[in-house]
Amino acid sequence: MSLQFHTVPVTPFQQNCTLLWCENSKRAAVVDPGGDLEKILAAVDERGLQLEKILLTHGHLDHVGGTAALARQLQLPVEGPHRDDEFWIAQLPVQAQMFGFPPAETFTPDRWLAQGDTVTVGEETLEVHHCPGHTPGHVVFFHRAGKLALVGDVLFAGSIGRTDFPRGDHDTLIRSITEKLWPLGDDVRFIPGHGPMSSFGQERQSNPFVADKRFG
Ligand SMILES: [Zn+2]
Ligand SMILES: [Zn+2]
Q: N or C: which end of the chain has fewer CB within 10 A?
């Protein structure tokens, strides 16, 4: 496929910041720049890519903490998450203090995303799926041609996102996974916000929280 990716674990939470790029144009997006910008930019340079935007799955510090600085430094537009995560982004300085992170600046995305939107990376297009539950404004990016999804903290290999945060909701998260992600196909591989990749089919078989047999 002509959409390529490389993940760069960042922050003490080892968040999977992902570089997505279009092989034809070498234009790239950074998905969830939580921090460690020098690591991210080194990965960009190594591959001879040109960054054109920042994409965000949700408003948690470990996913967006480096956004304001990176956007300013390279004059990049910020797309996502859904507007329902505005309160999380507004609280970034507080989140940073709470978790002992370096001071994090708040910002305003250039574009809020909603269910059914699309975003582009070079000549490639990804679908936006609104998947609330972990946070109310969480979005998932899906590249249909490449059967690849970036799911943030919605779903992990063998687990699911926490729902004990303000405006988190377990049943809503389960519905997001089973009603929005599963229909995309068992053969879809996904990059989670933390930990190794997996596929929707694998999780439907063995994930203790959302395997099909739990609902049969
Ligand atoms: Zn999160
Ligand atoms: Zn996270």
A: C
pLDDT at 1: 62
CA of 28 from ligand 1 middle (Å) equals: 23
Ligand nearest the Cα atom of residue 134: 1
Tens-place pLDDT, residues 164-205:
999 999 999 999 999 999 999 999 999 999 999 999 999 999
Show the domain range for 86. 3-215
Q: How does DSSP classify residue 143? A: E
CATH at residue 111? 3.60.15.10
**Distance from the alpha carbon of residue 34 to the mean position of ligand 2, in angstroms:** 9
Count of structural domains, the chain:
1
Q: How far apart are CA 62 and CA 17, in angstroms?
A: 9
Longest dimension (CA), the chain: 51
Q: How far is the CA of 92 from the centre of ligand 1 (A)?
A: 12
Ligand closest to CA 133: 1
